[in-house]
Amino acid sequence: MEATVKALLAPGKGLLAADESFPTIEKRFREFGIPSTDQTRQAYREMLFTTPGLAEFISGVILFDETIRQKIADVPMPEALDKLGIIPGIKVDKGTMSLPCFTGEKITQGLDGLRERLAEYRKLGARFTKWRALIVIGDQTPTHSCMAANARALALFAALSQEVELVPIIEPEILMDGDHSLARCEEATSETLEHVFHALLEYRVGLEQMLLKTNMIVSGTEHAEQAGPVEVAKATLRCFRRSVPVAVPGIVFLSGGQSDEAATERLSAICAEANSSWKFSFSFGRALQTPALKVWKGISSNMPAAQDALHRRAHLNSVALRGGGI
Question: Is residue 303 part of a domain?
């Protein structure tokens, strides 16, 4: 597991999150008039993963259950990714549901049968896993009960993953949606992370054999004053110093609905400000894929140009990890 962690955190590299559920990828395809079928989803993900030179900037890919069972040129997907120099991983949660008696809050599903599913994914070739918890900022949220319930689920997922020597990526995401301030985002993120790491220690999860995937500290999308990249960087690093143990080897950022340009700009600012024990990287979905999807549009002849768009965006994020200008 430590070897996998080290490889995922290779200098200048990040993760490509390609673990969209069926409803999510259907929604994204619909925007460009692409039908969501077995064939189009296969073609799209194959287009992404076979981008020439992608492994120079991408260390791992988070897959969906459908995708890990697919093939590229008759080669099973995990094996094909290995040959491309990319580590295969898998999303193992089953999405969110309303938290009973807590209006507007969510709990993540998928613990039932997880031990068996993890053993199967290990046999299929996965080397790491991911579980996402969703935290909403509102007038009365997040509540202690919501944060604690999601933290326990994350901890049990992580313990079960490490039981079969799969590296868990623990993803508590505080949503950008709302009119909250930068300070309120920092407060909610800090409290959530404190709950998460308390639960991880309680469940005896090896912190050195896991990665944290979480949000940057940003203003709510509807807030009147949007914090600039340097403010985001300072607040994000301050939050981590107060809430994340130094035993955690790395933190990978989710894009969380940010535009591809904004996510890269803020990533660069954070890495330029950083002077810490953690290695920082990215684990972007839309912020990596959108430029390629806009070009591809489900048309095979657009594939080279779409791959060029993905390669360029991955390269820009690699530059951002060094705190360089973009």
Answer: yes
pLDDT tens profile 134-169: 999 999 999 999 999 999 999 999 999 999 999 999
Buried b / exposed e over 54-85, threshold 16 CB at 10 Å, is: bbebbbbbbbbbbbbebebeeebbbebbeebe
Give domain status of residue 326, yes or no: no
Residue 124 located in a structural domain = yes
Report in angstroms the alpha-carbon separations of 95 from 51, 68, 130, 325: 29, 18, 12, 36
**Rg of the chain in Å (alpha carbons):** 19
pLDDT for residue 276 is more than 90? no
**In whole numbers, what is the pLDDT of the chain averaged over residues?**
96
Domain that holds residue 126: 2-321
Per-residue DSSP letters for 10-48? -TT-EEEE----HHHHHHHHHTTT----HHHHHHHHHHH
Catalytic residue set:
171, 213
User: What is residue 3's three-state secondary structure?
Assistant: helix
pTM over the 0.70 mark: yes
Q: What are phi and psi of 169, to 5 degrees?
A: -100, 115
In total, how many domains does the chain have? 1
Q: Inform me whether the pLDDT recorded for 178 exceeds 80.
A: yes
Q: Binning pLDDT at 50, 70 and 90, where does residue 87 land?
A: very high
Centroid of chain to Cα 246:
20
